[in-house]
Amino acid sequence: MSDAFIVCSNLSFSWPDDTPVFSELSFTVPGGRTGLVAPNGAGKSTLLRLIAGELRPSGGSVTVDGLLGYLPQTLPLAGDLSVARVLGVAERIAALHAIEAGDASEEHFATIGDDWDIEERTRAELDRLGLGELSLDRPLHTLSGGQVVSLGLAAQLLRRPDVLLLDEPTNNLDLAARHKLYDVLTDFTGCLLLVSHDRELLDRMDRIAELERGEIRWYKGNFTAYTEAVQAAREVAESNLRNAEQEVKREKREMQQARERADRRASNAAKNLKNAGLARIVAGGLKRSAQESAGKAQETHAGRLGQAKARLDEAGRAVRDEDRITVDLPDTTVPGGRTVFSGQGMRAASTAGSCSAATARTW
């Protein structure tokens, strides 16, 4: 396993309208396979772009140890490019063919460098990703969306990166292409950081990094282990929240009962003092003493209630807010930003029961 890694130190980033995305985010990605997960809109793709150098942080730093490869969700490729051009091997292969044809120009040797096996490596990489039938001069616009994604990954792998960033790499891939990609990434020995909603792919990760509320939380194991850990933590947090709610109710009740007891004692004491015929100065002293005692008791209960409320707030923050459901849909011709469906308080019933009310919006 490679020693290559990614270090983000006090990373901050805001959009041009000053909308903050990250604030002093620090973490290290070790070698091996890491899946980055988070709710939509939390900044997963933005984080990859910052690491890749496509965006500049407003504060902090990003350090990548080794050669970096990056495959974004949308590839900025022109349709008239050839497969060889997309892979970045066109000049070297052309120089190789020229030498094989008898042209011993020094320029060709300089172009090839040490990559005398570039054509064999290219064919092997394409074959690993299910693209073995593609000719290297085939234009990009004749390929499917899935083939373009696989071709983009092949281009990155041919560079032999130490660190590989992938943003939703299985988008547009059919089942066969997905399994080819799974096998290729399983064999990758560098530092892999990927964003994906593909659970089967995430189950092949060594660890899961969760971007939550501007912080990274680490979970050992694959996505299944992560979901089990999150569920266990959620159950503990919900139990702690219920206990904290009961504690606040109990403290409020005891505080009210203490106040009522103090009021009764004060009323009885006033009657007794009046009946006893004590001097006014003595009666006043006893009254003040009773009031001070009641005040101290009230202060003690108020302090306990404040502590209980603080524990309730802490328990509430630990409970994940997952009432909102986000549904990802394939690319359509609907313009971005247009709401095509909005629902609130929905319930879905089935033979197994019904789910909780939820709010959903899709665009």
List keywords for this structure.
alpha/beta; Rossmann fold; 3 domains; three-stranded antiparallel β-sheet; 10 helices; 46% helix; 20% strand
Question: How would you describe the overall organization of this protein?
Answer:
There is one protein chain. The protein has helices at residues 44-52, 83-87, 90-100, 106-112, 118-128, 145-158, 175-187, 199-202, 223-276, 280-318, and strands at 6-14, 20-29, 32-37, 59-64, 68-71, 163-167, 191-195, 207-212, 215-220, 324-325, 341-346, 349-350, 353-354, 358-362. By secondary structure, it is α/β, with parallel strands linked by helices. The chain has three domains: 6-82 and 139-230, Rossmann fold, CATH 3.40.50; 242-318; 324-362, no CATH class. The protein has a six-stranded mixed beta sheet with strand order 5-6-7-3-8-9, with helices on both faces. The chain has a three-stranded antiparallel beta sheet with strand order 2-1-4, covered by helices on one side. Helix 9 runs antiparallel to helix 10 (280-318). The protein is elongated. The two termini are 41 Å apart.
Strand composition percent = 15-25%
- Could you name the CATH class of the largest domain? Alpha Beta
CATH homologous superfamily annotation of the largest domain = P-loop containing nucleotide triphosphate hydrolases
CATH topology group of the largest domain: Rossmann fold
Number of alpha- plus pi-helical segments: 10
Which structural class fits the helix and strand makeup?
Answer: alpha/beta
| Gap from first CA to last CA | 41 Å
Q: Please give the order of strands in the largest beta sheet.
A: 5-6-7-3-8-9
Anisotropy-based shape: elongated
